[in-house]
Structure formats: C-alpha cells, structure tokens
Amino acid sequence: MENETSNKKNDTTKSHDPVPLTRAIFLALICKTPNITGYELMNLVPEIMNNRIRFKSGTLYSELRRLEKMGLVSSEQSSTGRKQRKYEITPTGKETLKIISNQIKDRIQFILNPLISIIDSLEIYE
Asked: Is the dihedral of CA 96, 100, 101, 106 positive or negative?
C-alpha cells in the first residue's frame, strides 16, 4: 500500500515538472534531419518555428553536448572539408522524444485548453 502511494506521488510530481521544450525542439529536428550539423540546426529552428524561436550558438552547442552526454543523440566529426560535427538521434533519444511529446499533449489538453476556455469566457476583451 505504501509503495502505491509513493508511486502516485512520484507520478504527480513528474506530471507537473516543466516540459523541456528546447530539448524537444532539438530532438525532433535531429530526428527529422539525420546528420544535421549544429550550424544547420541553428538555421533550421527559426525556419520551422516561424521565426518565433532562435537559439544563440552557445545555447545550441551546450544543449547538443548535454544531449550527447545523456545518450539522446550521437555525433560524428566529418573528416573531409570543414571539421563539422553531425548529429543523429539515438533509440533512447526517440523514446525520450515520445515521452516529451506526450507530456506536451497532456499539458495542452488538460491544462492549457481549459485555461484558455476560462480566460475566453471572461469579459476582459470587451
């Protein structure tokens, strides 16, 4: 009985943790575009996100290193031409992306949509 309570507490805590959107963006784009370089990824983000999101190179490369240390992406340095590192998502990265995607969908359905409905019902727009 105590384990059930503990597990429920952990599930509740996890469901309220912030969703790592930067991680989701990078994993999704790396999955969609295998062998992408950091530079290409930096240019692709604004294009895909309607110029609403841009990452500075320091943010991008530190997150790519973090994703690699976590085993979510792998990289290989090209041996020809410019020494560029190319990134691919790992099977663990794909599983993590599925989990994050489900978290985002749940937040939209159970938190954001009801909140928008409440706000829209208020007479603040008149």
From this structure: positive
Order of all β-strands in the sheet with 73-77:
36-37, 85-89, 73-77
CA distance 59 to 38: 11
Report the C-alpha gap between 46 and 63 in whole angstroms: 17
Tell me the CATH number at 110: 1.10.10.10
Q: Residue 51 pLDDT > 80, yes or no?
A: yes
**Count of domains forming the chain:** 1
Who's near 25: CB < 8 A, 6+ residues apart?
A: 45, 49, 53
3-state secondary structure of 36: strand
Identify whether the C-beta of residue 82 lies closer than 8 Å to the C-beta of residue 37.
no
CA distance 115 to 31: 32
Could you tell me the residue range of the domain that residue 54 belongs to? 2-121
Return the pLDDT at 18.
84
Residue 126 lies in a domain: no
For residue 2 the two structure tokens come to 């105590």
pLDDT digits (tens, 9 = 90+) for 14-46: 556 788 999 999 999 999 999 999 999 999 999
